[in-house]
Write a structure and sequence with these properties.
single chain, 75 residues, 35% helix, globular
């Protein structure tokens, strides 16, 4: 179960990771990079957000969903 946006953990994020489901394997690296930038710019709006504890802080992990793509395609 993904976590909700957490301002405390967000302040301690040291890495960003994006999980792409297999449905998007035919997307170019440039297209994925553009979407990843938009998703991580507004993590509070991500449909599936998780934080992984690390020694130096947290890693933010966003799993891409169709809802996320609809939201950022307008941007």
């Amino acid at each position: 179960m993904p976590n909700a946006f957490d301002p405390y953990r967000e302040a301690l994020v040291v890495e960003n990771h994006t999980v792409w489901p297999g449905d998007y394997e035919d997307w170019s690296d440039a297209d994925k990079a553009r979407v990843e930038t938009l998703l991580h710019a507004a993590p509070q709006e991500a449909a599936e957000l998780d934080y992984h504890r690390q020694h130096t802080g947290f890693a933010r992990v966003i799993t891409v969903t169709p809802a996320d793509l609809d939201r950022v395609s307008v941007a």
